[in-house]
Amino acid sequence: MYSAPLAERYVSGVAREIHSWLETKEAAASDNVDLEPDRIKVDTIYFGGGTPSLLSPAQLRTLLTAVRSRFNVGHDVEITMEMNPGTVTPETLLSFRELGVNRASFGAQTFDDAELARLGRSHTAADTRRTFSQLRDAGFENVSFDLIAGLPGQSLDGWQRNLDEAFALRPEHLSFYLLEVHQGTPLAEHISRGLQPKADEDLAAEMYEVMLERAGDAGYRHYEISNLSLPGFESRHNTKYWTGAPYFGFGCSAHSYDGAFRRWANERDIVRYLELIETDHSAVVDDTKLTDSDRQAEAVFLGLRMMQGLSLSGYQRLFGIDLSAEHENDLASFREAGLIECNGDRLKLTRAGALLSNEVFAAFV
Length: 365
Fold this sequence. Notes:
With 365 residues, this protein is of the alpha/beta class. Helices cover 45% and strands 20% of the residues. It contains 17 helices and 13 strands. The two termini are 39 Å apart.
C-alpha cells in the first residue's frame, strides 16, 4: 500500500502526462493516427491496473478533468473502473457514478471461500455479493465480474455452484478464465511441493463447456474467447484491443498503440515513472515499430479471439495476402481437428478451438 502523499503525487503525475501528451515526441511521431486536432475523439475510458477504486472522488475528478481537457469525450462514453470486492463504500460508489463512471469490473474469481483462500485472495464471497449489491444501489447498470475454472481441488459440482451464484446475480458481463499457474507465485510453489493438487485440464475443459451451455441458456452471448455478455453489453473498451483500434494509456506501466505500426509503454516503477513525468513530461521507456509479420500475426490471433471471427477479405485488403492460401496446410489440419470453421468470408474458432486457441494461434506467430 502506497502512502497518501505518494498517491497524491501519482495522480498529479498522471494528470500532467495527459495534459502534455501531444507534446511528447512519442505521440507526435505517429503517422497513422490523426494527431493534428488538439482534441481527439474518444468513446471509452478505462481505469485499470492496481486498484483504481481506491482513488478518492477528488482524485478521480482530477484525472477525468485532465482527459476531458485533452480529448473530445463523447456524450455516450463508456467509463469503466476496475475494483476489488470489499474495497469500496456505498458513498464512494455514488460519487464515482456521479462523476460519470458507468461500468464496473471486479474479480470475483469464485464464490467458494476455501478456493479464494487457496488463491491467496483477500476478499470473501460475501464481499463479492456485498460489492455487487452496493454497485446496483449506486445506480450501476453495467457490471462485469470474472470467474476462474480449473482451480486446484475444484469439482464440477463446485463450479456449478459458482455458476448458480453468478447467474442469480445476473451481471451484464462475465469474464471467465482457465487457471494459469505462473512460476514464482505462491500457488506454483504450493503445487510443486504437493501442498495443492495440480489442475485437471480435462475437468477444466468440461467446466468451460458447462459455462458456455448455461450462459447461453441464461441469455448471454459468447462474443470473445473469455467473455460473455447480455446483448448490447459487450466491453466496448476491450473490444478495441481485439479489433486493432488505437488506444492511449497513461500512468505507470501503461501501454499504447497507434492502430497500425507502433506500440509504446511507460516505466513500470512508480517512483521512476514520477521522476520521468516531472522532468520530461513523458515516461515512455519502450517504443516498438511493428514489422509486417508482427502486424499480420496480430491481426490473425486478435481477430480470431472474437467469436465472430476474422474477415478473410479484410485481411487481404490490409496486407495483400490470401490467408487461406498462405496457411492452407495449417488451416486444413485445424478444420479436420474441428478447431476452426469458415463461414463464407469469416474464419472462426469453433467452441473446441476457443478452448485450444493457443495451439491455433501458434501457427500464425
